[in-house]
Amino acid sequence: MLAYEEEVSGYDIKKWADWSLRHYYWSPSFSQVYSELKRVEQHGYATSWMADGEGGRNRRVYKITDAGRRAVRIWALDSPVDPPMLKHGVILRTAFGHLSTPEQLKAMLTEHVARMDELQHRVAVDAAAAEAEPAWAYARIAMRWAERYYASERELALELMDEIDTAEQVFRSGASVGESFPKPRPGHWREVEQQVQAGEHDD
């Protein structure tokens, strides 16, 4: 938010993150915002002062410095982009579906679909509101991407729900006589891993 050349408080930055960044990256806590602002100021990337706020209450506001502009420009142009890392609690729970039941998994996915619907609606509203300011053009298309992401996540969850019964049938078909549920052959994963690696070398 400082990169937009605006004089803002830590509270302003937190509200901005909750309105935009949280849809596709992160929503920091107030303590994280203020500790980062302190660090940025110590590096000379921002300066701060006390200013009058609403209701006569003073607040500390921050503004980017020339050094801060150079630093953020270098980050935007030259810093490597970290690849996205998938860390999906719903999929992790599905992967260990043998510890659950098809009914419980479907209920979990139903809740996930409802949550995606809510998030998609929220970001659609925020993206539409961002049209009011030309300076937010890139933030707006990032939010539009998040809107499409939530829609895709919803469809993937519905597809996964349809696959649960088939997975349960395959899972149960592997049970030996006397077993309550099938257990993989000890060490089989090593054999499969070696086969995969051999196939990659052949390619």
From TrEMBL:
Tree of life domain? Bacteria
Residue intervals of the Transcription regulator PadR N-terminal domain:
4-72
Q: What InterPro entries does UniProt report for this protein, alphabetically?
A: Tscrpt_reg_PadR_N (IPR005149), WH-like_DNA-bd_sf (IPR036388), WH_DNA-bd_sf (IPR036390)
Q: Which Gene3D superfamilies match?
A: Winged helix-like DNA-binding domain superfamily/Winged helix DNA-binding domain
Return the annotated region ranges for Disordered.
Answer: 175-203
Pfam families per the UniProt record, alphabetical: PadR
* Full protein name: Transcription regulator PadR N-terminal domain-containing protein
